[in-house]
Amino acid sequence: MRIAISAFLFTTEPGKRYAGVGRNMARNLEEIVRKDRGDTYHIFVNQGVELPESWQSCPWITWHPIEIKGVAQRLYWEHYRVGKEAKRLGCDLVHSLFANLPYACSLPKTTVIHDAFPRTHSSWYTTRNRLILDWMTATGCRIATRVVTVSEFSKRELSRAYGASMDKIDVCFNGPGNDVSDLDEAGIAAISREGLPDLDVPFVFTVSTLEPRKNLVGLVQAIASVPDVKLYIAGAKGWLNSDLASMVESSPAKDRIVFLGYVSEEQLNLLLNKCTVFTLVSYVEGFGIPVLEAMVAGAPVVTSQTSSLPEVAGEWAFYCDPEKPESIANALLSALGDADNLSRMAKGGQEFAARYSWESCVDSLHDVFRKAVGR
Questions:
Q1: Is 70 exceeded by the pLDDT of residue 218?
Q2: Does residue 236 surpass a pLDDT of 80?
Q3: 20 to 30 Å CA-CA from 111: which of 93, 117, 200, 284?
Q4: Structural domain count of the chain
Q5: How many angstroms separate the CA atoms of 41 and 29, rounded?
Q6: Do 239 and 128 form a contact (C-beta atoms < 8 A)?
Q7: Which is nearest to 211 in space by CA: 95, 140, 133, 121?
Q8: Domain housing 46
Q9: In this model, does residue 359 exceed pLDDT 70?
Q10: How many C-alpha atoms does 112 have within 13 Å on its Cβ side?
Q11: pTM given for the model
C-alpha cells in the first residue's frame, strides 16, 4: 500500500507543541521509520523541520519538505494540495497526523483526533482556539473514512459530541512519549542534575503543560495538606492565563513548590526515577502519556479517577477526585503512608505499562489503513 501522510504540524522543537499531541506525531513517524511493514510512504512536512539522518535515508519513505509561509499556506496544503499530490503519486490513502484533511480528494482518508475537548470543555479555550479546534474536529469526524483516537474514553466522547459513528472510530493506544526507563544507580548518576533542585529529598513530581485542564491549582491546594514532601512541577507554559501563580504565592506550602519549566528527556527520566510519587490530577485526559511514562520508569502513581486515566493505569494507581483538593491530598497521603504498598503498586504498574508501545500503536494504525481502503 502507498500512503500519503500530512505532517505539517510535526515539530521537534522543545516546548508546548512538543507536548502530548506533538509527541504522538513524532513517535508515530519514528516507528514508521523503524519498522518495514511492507508499505511505502510519501510524508509531507514543513521544510523548517530538521529530520534525523536515519529518517531521511529510510528506503520506504519519500519525504516532501514544503516551504510553508504562514497559516494560510499550511491550510492550503492540508486541505487541498496534499490530496492532489497524493493522487498524482498514486497513493492509496491520505492520513493526517492531526485532524486536518484534504477536501478535494477522492482517496480514502484517515485522521488522528485525540479528544472532543473543544466541544465538551469549551471554557478551557480562548474563543479563537475553541472555534478553530472545534471546526477541525467536526470536519475531520465528518469527512474521514476512518477516525483514529487514543482511548476508549475519547472514542465515546467523539461519538457523543460530534455525532461520529462508533463503528467509524478506531482506538490506537499511545506508547510513552519519551524514552523513559527504570534506571539503575549508574544510569541515575550519569544524568546531569544541572538546573534541577534537590532530588534526594521526598518529592511529588508532575509534568504537564501549564493549562487549566491539568488542574495544577487543585494539586497546589492539596499539597498544603501533605507535609514533609516537596512538589516539583515540570512543563511548558500553556495557552490560557490562570490564577496558578497567585495560588502558589498564597499557599502555606509555597516554599515546598518548585516550577522546573521545560526539562530535557534525560532529566525527565531522572525525575521519574527519583520521585517518591508521580501525580497527574487532570480534570480530563484523552490518554495521559505522563502516567504511562511514570509507570514505565517504576514510579508510583496518583491520578484522577476520570476520563481515560483508569484505562492507562488500571488497578495500579492511587485514584482521586480531581474536583476535590482534599481527595487529591488523601490519595497522596495514602500513597506516601505505606512504603511496602507503594513499592507493590509501582512494580505492578511497571508490568501493566508494558502492554503499551509505539510499535503496537502503529501496527494498529496500519490495520486502520487497510480497513479504510477495503483490504
A1: yes
A2: no
A3: 284
A4: 2
A5: 11
A6: no
A7: 121
A8: 2-175+357-373
A9: yes
A10: 29
A11: 0.90
Tens digit of pLDDT for each residue in 245-261? 888 888 999 999 999 98
Helix (H) and strand (E) counts for the chain?
Answer: 16, 13
> For residues 288 and 282, is the Cβ–Cβ distance under 8 A?
yes
The helix/strand/coil state of 260 is strand
Same-domain status, 191 and 335? yes
One domain for residues 193 and 282: yes
Q: Which run of H or of E encompasses 268?
A: helix 265-274
Q: CB–CB of 110/5 below 8 Å?
A: no
CA–CA dist 210, 146 (Å, integer): 32
What's the grid cell of residue 197?
A: 533542585
Specify whether 155 is located in the same domain as 285. Answer: no
Give 108 or 375, the one with higher predicted confidence. Answer: 108
In a domain, 180, yes or no: no
Residue found by looking up cell 508499505 in the block: 39
- 189 with 141, same domain: the answer is no
Among 109, 107, 111, 95, which residue's Cα sits nearest to residue 5? 95
- Long-range own/partner contacts, residues 368-374 (CB < 8 A, 24 or more apart): 368/110, 368/146, 368/148, 368/170, 368/172, 369/1, 369/3, 369/39, 369/93, 369/95, 369/110, 370/1, 371/146, 371/170, 372/93, 372/108, 372/109, 372/110, 372/145, 372/146, 373/1, 373/92, 373/93, 373/108
Q: How many CA atoms lie within 13 A of 211 on its CB side?
A: 18
> Which residue type is seen at 117?
F
